[in-house]
């Protein structure tokens, strides 16, 4: 069957997705670029030995699901020390934390779940706390990518949520979201995390991973941008003719529409799409709009979609003091992902 490109590109703002609780939970799997992630396919950077050490430690953590070995002669042999039920990978962007987390998920028995901190808090908000606990009851492993500490309310919500599940035998694996230029901040982030979840803190092993963001070696780089709307629209038409499913929206309309869709359903906005195009990108001044865009960009990046845009380079969309404020880590992660996703 041939694909007949539309004369007018479809628009994301025309989609108003709905999802059941079971459908929302079913989306909690590693992003598709990590479908085949494994411990063997992780390539530690020799210039940063902590990456190899992290690989060894998370391999050991994965051994926790295997039956315990019997002792030596008459059971008097040396006992194997069981790994802690939680492991926390603390490091900068693009050093392989998500690859290791996805590898652990693939190695673990089910039921198991994988999502970002934002995805879990959004899902709990959509389902309600009690229903969310019920949905995850019996999980063998919960992976939380980019655990965030900038929102005390969400952090404490996740603390309580994870605490209830750990008490019932669930094991946890989390990563931090330390920016690459925040020297020493990673260790403070780990300490803050442990203070917030003090009820289960002693059950976590902290593993530091150093390195350079493989997506963005130069922190001063920019996301690709078209010179004007006409050039962008021409690129959209060309891709559509080639068989790609490309959406085209005005930036302000898209940002407004994101406010009408629960973040847990952003993934459904992008269903069946190969690339998104956005006209008239400009810096945002409203923090609520900026945070919604961050959550949306996370879903775009996880789906490995190309981003085409005109106007301000997309990585400059977080204006004013946003990059110096309390949500700095969120915005830096989005910038890194936008630079990786933006194309011409």
TrEMBL record:
Q: Which organism is it from?
A: Herbiconiux moechotypicola
Q: Does the record carry ATP-binding as a key word?
A: yes
> In terms of domain of life, where is this protein from?
Bacteria
Instruction: List keywords of the entry alphabetically.
Output: ATP-binding, Cell cycle, Cell division, Nucleotide-binding
One Pfam entry name: AFG1_ATPase
NCBIfam families in the cross-refs: ZapE
Recorded protein name is Cell division protein ZapE
Q: What are the recorded Gene Ontology BP terms?
A: cell division
């Amino acid at each position: 069957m041939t694909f007949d490109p539309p004369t007018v590109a479809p628009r994301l703002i025309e989609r108003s997705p709905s999802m059941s609780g079971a459908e929302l939970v079913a989306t909690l799997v590693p992003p598709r670029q990590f479908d085949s992630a494994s411990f063997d396919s992780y390539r530690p950077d020799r210039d940063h030995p902590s990456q190899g050490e992290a690989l060894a430690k998370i391999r050991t953590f994965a051994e926790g699901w295997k039956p315990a070995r019997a002792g030596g002669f008459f059971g008097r042999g040396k006992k194997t020390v069981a790994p802690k039920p939680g492991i926390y990978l603390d490091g900068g962007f693009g050093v392989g934390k998500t690859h290791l987390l996805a590898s652990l998920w693939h190695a673990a028995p089910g039921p198991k779940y994988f999502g970002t901190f934002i995805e879990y808090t959004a899902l709990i908000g959509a389902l309600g706390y009690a229903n969310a606990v019920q949905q995850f009851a019996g999980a063998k492993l919960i992976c939380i990518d980019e655990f965030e500490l900038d929102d005390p309310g969400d952090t404490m919500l996740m603390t309580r949520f994870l605490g209830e599940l750990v008490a019932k035998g669930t094991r946890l694996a989390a990563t931090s979201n330390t920016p690459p230029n925040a020297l020493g901040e990673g260790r403070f982030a780990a300490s803050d995390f442990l203070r917030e979840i003090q009820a289960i803190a002693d059950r976590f092993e902290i593993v530091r991973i150093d390195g350079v963001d493989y997506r963005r070696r130069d922190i001063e780089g920019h996301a690709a941008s078209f010179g004007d709307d006409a050039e962008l629209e021409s690129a959209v038409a060309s891709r559509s003719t080639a068989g790609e499913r490309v959406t085209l929206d005005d930036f302000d309309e898209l940002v407004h529409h994101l406010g009408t869709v629960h973040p847990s359903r952003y993934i459904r906005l992008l269903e069946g799409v190969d690339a998104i195009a956005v006209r008239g990108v400009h810096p945002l001044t409203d923090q609520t709009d900026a945070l919604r865009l961050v959550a949306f960009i996370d879903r775009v990046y996880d789906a490995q979609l190309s981003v085409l845009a005109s106007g301000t380079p997309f990585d400059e969309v977080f204006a004013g003091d946003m990059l110096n404020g309390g949500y700095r880590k969120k915005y830096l992660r989005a910038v890194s992902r936008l630079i990786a996703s933006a194309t011409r």
